[in-house]
């Protein structure tokens, strides 16, 4: 375990932005993590936790000790004829974990195929896609207190999951390092194929009696058709959250724009696709030097190479202002600005 100085983080953020960490350490176990947190040399030094970097926008160098949790492992801790409980290290690549579950026939995360990032970041964001959110399968989250080095296990309820939110992004932001999560998955899965183009894609694939592998394959096909691969074009997936607005506001919006899509959240709230709003405001395919808005998905901001986080942040603010002016809706970023 070695602390390095002036380390480029270009390969540790999916935007491919060239920012430096003043100090950097890779930790491969909870013991290594607690040791560095309790080390008197680093005790009072500012710290920054960086996992897969799939949901951050680096707008500057990080003047801190950047800790990269690289804790691996997938372990069965409980199993019945119906379910299996898995303990998973925070450093596992999320999609690799999903594929492991698909291969084993464990249902519950197949709709979350191909989401970039690590297992440790997944509960922080309460990642979700195609009708499924991670909170539906999480039993608990293990984390270490940055201040004390103490280990704490958070129950599902204590994680306070919301739409792309958790307690780790709100009340406990920058206070804990997630080291692992425990998932309860089904060995007799109930498939979720009703969202978006999933059913249509399954039909095109000829999957008349789909399995979780078919669901996963369909979702990967859809995502690849709409979203750029970060290995080819720098991006962090969906840049903005889909806004949720009151029913009355949606009714007024629908009068002015009859084509606007809306999805009821509950009796009082409607979710409006942020990508649709951005596209209608004229931003889809927009390019400004080395950065821009993806040509196939307006919800994705991209770095074509050589762009800066500050430039992407400025573009996002222009988009927010434009959408607010046209539709009266304020978009909130899903990506975390650093």
TrEMBL record:
Active site per database record: 164, 238, 334
A biological process term (GO) from this entry: peptidoglycan biosynthetic process
Molecular function as annotated in GO: FAD binding; UDP-N-acetylmuramate dehydrogenase activity
GO cellular component: cytosol
Main localization of the protein described in the UniProt heading: cytoplasm
Subcellular location as annotated: Cytoplasm
Domain FAD-binding PCMH-type: 15-188
UniProt-recorded name of the protein: UDP-N-acetylenolpyruvoylglucosamine reductase
